[in-house]
């Protein structure tokens, strides 16, 4: 397949039908069309506010306009719901403009799946858990259930050697924060304890050095 429309062509066609889209910069244009003919993996690393979301949306439009991919073959994943919402809106708006500019057929379905890693993973789990021998009804714990459990653990903690001057609510929040980080980084309680002990040892040495 050959490229029918360049990233610049597409932006120009969309502007012609009154769409408020930016002309991509040369750097953005290169990324929008990279590794698309044939489709190959590519990674783009750029700082906050540098135009990543804009570029991702334009890339989707570019792939669809040139027939390199259909909207239903595209999956957009982001870390936060806010980012997923933003990307979904930009893509949907642009696809409609692409249709208005007659760059894609009138009957092209415009639905692109854009979601967060977490909710996509939850969907995969519920759709395919049976293949891995996991109960199909299993539900990942929601925030409320996690809070409830953490709250119970903290309030009923019996080990008297543990003391903490923070409010109970703060300890619950800390426990939840640590749990999420441990799950994301696949670290065990033993790993954390070992790392803590190392720091404590170093601190003890420093203390020993200044206070002989
Ligand atoms: N080619 C461009 N011309 C003008 N403004 C742009 C262009 N690309 C992005 N922007 C604007 O720059 C801002 C940051 O872009 P965004 O894609 O949200 O960045 P990121 O996702 O990297 O944080 C947005 O307001 C966006 O509309
Ligand atoms: Mg962004």
Give a description of the structure:
The chain starts with 6 loop residues before the first helix and ends with a helix. The mean pLDDT is 91. Strand 1, helix 4 (81-100) and strand 2 (113-116) form a beta-alpha-beta unit. The protein has a two-stranded parallel sheet. The protein is 55% helix and 4% strand. The protein contains 8 helices and 2 strands. By secondary structure, the protein is mainly alpha-helical. The protein folds into 2 domains: 7-125, P-loop containing nucleotide triphosphate hydrolases (Rossmann fold); 143-210, no CATH class. It has helices at residues 7-16, 26-33, 52-65, 81-100, 117-128, 143-155, 168-185, 189-210, and strands at 75-78, 113-116. Residues 22, 24-25, 28, 46, 48-54 line the site of adenosine-5'-diphosphate. Magnesium ion (MG) binds next to helix 3.
Query: Which fold does the CATH topology of the largest domain refer to?
Result: Rossmann fold
Ligand identities: adenosine-5'-diphosphate, magnesium ion
Order of helices and strands: HHHEHEHHHH
Name the CATH homologous superfamily of the largest domain.
P-loop containing nucleotide triphosphate hydrolases
The tally of beta strands, per DSSP, is 2
Number of domains: 2
Radius of gyration: 25 Å
Mean pLDDT: 91
Helical content band:
55-70%
Strand order of the largest sheet: 1-2
Describe the sheet with the most strands: 2 strands, parallel
Low-confidence stretches: none
The CATH class of the largest domain is identified as Alpha Beta
């Amino acid at each position: 397949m050959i490229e029918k429309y360049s990233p610049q062509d597409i932006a120009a066609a969309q502007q012609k039908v009154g769409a408020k889209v930016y002309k991509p910069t040369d750097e953005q244009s290169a990324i929008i069309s990279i590794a698309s003919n044939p489709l190959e993996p590519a990674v783009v690393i750029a700082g906050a506010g540098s135009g990543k979301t804009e570029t991702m949306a334009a890339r989707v439009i570019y792939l669809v306009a040139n027939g390199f991919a259909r909207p239903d073959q595209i999956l957009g994943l982001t870390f936060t719901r806010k980012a997923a919402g933003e990307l979904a809106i930009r893509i949907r708006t642009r696809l409609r403009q692409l249709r208005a500019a007659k760059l894609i057929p009138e009957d092209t379905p415009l639905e692109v799946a854009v979601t967060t890693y977490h909710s996509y993973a939850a969907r995969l789990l519920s759709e395919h858990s049976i293949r891995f021998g996991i109960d199909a009804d299993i539900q990942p714990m929601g925030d409320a259930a996690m809070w409830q459990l953490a709250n119970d653990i903290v309030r009923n903690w019996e080990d008297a050697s543990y003391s903490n001057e923070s409010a109970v609510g703060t300890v619950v929040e800390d426990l939840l924060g640590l749990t999420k980080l441990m799950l994301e980084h696949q670290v065990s309680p033993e790993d954390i304890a070992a790392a803590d002990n190392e720091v404590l040892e170093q601190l003890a040495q420093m203390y020993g050095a200044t206070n002989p």
